[in-house]
Amino acid sequence: MTEKEDEEEEDEDRNTEERYHVETDNKEGDVCVITERCKGCGFCIEFCPVDALDYSDRATEKGYTPPEMTEGCVLCGKCEKICPEFAIYLDEEEDEEEKEGEGESEEERGEWI
User: Fold this and answer.
1) Domain range annotation of the chain
2) Cα torsion angle, 41, 42, 47, 52, sign
3) Which of 3, 13, 44, 110 counts the highest number of beta carbons within 10 A?
């Protein structure tokens, strides 16, 4: 198998992984968990500054318990950054203002502060 075929197979596997959205109270987005990657280590739960995550009652095929959302998520992203398996990520909604500003040059948008 060539290197390109290996990469295509990995991409295909990545697209078929089971994942679920953990609904948040925050209207700006959700937390997504790729259950096949989650090892149930609990880092995301332990490091959440607002205690918005807890262990779920359901287990994966491998017996791991992925996190579930309780309440109060502020989409800080610490769970995403701390996950050693890259099994959790934020799915943030784009602002209408951000969408409108995408076609503008850096000068038109203003400076980064």
Assistant:
1) 31-94
2) positive
3) 44
